[in-house]
Amino acid sequence: MHKHLTGDLAALPDLLQTTRDYAVSVLAGLGERPVAPPPVPVPAAPLPLVGAGTAGALAEFQRRWAPGFSGSAGPRYLGFVTGGATPAALAGDWLTGAFDQNGSNRSGSSAAGLEDETVAWLREMFGLGPEHSGAFVSGATMSNLVGLAVGREWIGRRLGVDVARQGLAALGEITVLSGTAHSSVYKALSILGAGRDALRPVATLPDREAVDVSALAAALESLDGRPAIVVANAGTVNTVDFDDLRAILALRDRYPFWLHVDAAFGGFAALSPDHAHLVDGLTEADSVCVDLHKWLNVPYDAAVQFTRHRDLQVAVFQNSAAYLPAVSGDPDFFHLTPENSRRLRALAAWFTLAAYGADGHRTIVTGAIAAAHRLGARLTAIPGVRLLSPVRLNVVCFSVPTDVPALVQAIADSGEAFLTPTVYRGEPALRAAFSNWRTTPADADRVAALLERLLT
């Protein structure tokens, strides 16, 4: 055994304690750490030949790389709908590495059973029915990809084509309809071979990002009975707008389509008594995307995909080899997702759900919603600032009377907060997305005060 491996094994308890102490100091200092510092180039180091051992590596990380890491785990990182990591989720993530389970199969470990239980908890939390099965994936992009892949197979079966075996060429063109599709949907369609142009944007309601259901009906009518995929939004990126899922579902009486709902973070509206109606009908979707490293506040990366058609999912993703278990009544996870090798992402989610339950996560969700509304109200008092949409859930989208990129940079340079730029209906804007469990009303006030200083 290498001398540093031998030494580290002997000193492992002390090394883990040192790492734990350093991690605690980082978390304790989140309030002072710059939220999103501009990256400073770090001179490249040569490949270590002998290495420095764990203690030496930790010291080098602290010296060279840690100073440039963001405070994205903290309460005022309001970009990209990024959550943090609850204490329980962090503990689960550490144990994920310690146990290092092969999360792809059901042999030799109870890890798959833990993932099944976690998916069942999430299914109940989001108001889905027992007919929805699910699996963990890396993020919303992969969750959308899985849902669309299974939808592609469903279209093929309706037309007498086994796409998983015969390929997309045997099926021909497929049509995907959506009002305000997330960019990851286009990316997924590119990966799946359908092409980005397979997505036909459908008109939205006036001054909304929600689809006009009458326009959607017309688009489906134009297909002359050919099956399609409809991607509905449960929470758009800019304004957290929701498609009317019940009205879309009613179209199934006339038209054949696979309903995929992108509920990456809007699905968490199910936890808020005042907003749960926004996801009414979610349980009847054919596939659903929910991103967990957003509002569930588990570490990157983690998302879950649900579908009511596990047989088609297995047809798409099954992996056959002499050394692998065949598909059974309870398929191994490598038969359900693009990955054969996968870490046990479910453990961090299991820990945070076991620790805080649905009620604890409801508190996180309602607290973030309240903070977003608080910031929205404060912004209306700043001259020249204009809300571009009502604050529907946890995102504030607004325009400012100055150059947006310059303001974004000034916000980041302050170290106080991080907001992302966007364009809404052709107008440059900013968006503040609240989803971190640490965020308090005082943080919303602090961001508002910063913007007021920078704009007046």
UniProtKB/TrEMBL annotation:
Belongs to the group II decarboxylase family. The modification N6-(pyridoxal phosphate)lysine is found at residue 294. This is Amino acid decarboxylase. Keywords: Decarboxylase, Lyase, Pyridoxal phosphate. InterPro entries: Aromatic_deC, PyrdxlP-dep_de-COase, PyrdxlP-dep_Trfase, PyrdxlP-dep_Trfase_major, PyrdxlP-dep_Trfase_small, Pyridoxal-P_BS. It comes from Actinoplanes utahensis. It comes from the Bacteria. Its cofactor is pyridoxal 5'-phosphate. One of its GO terms (molecular function) is aromatic-L-amino-acid decarboxylase activity. PROSITE patterns: DDC_GAD_HDC_YDC. GO terms for biological process: carboxylic acid metabolic process.
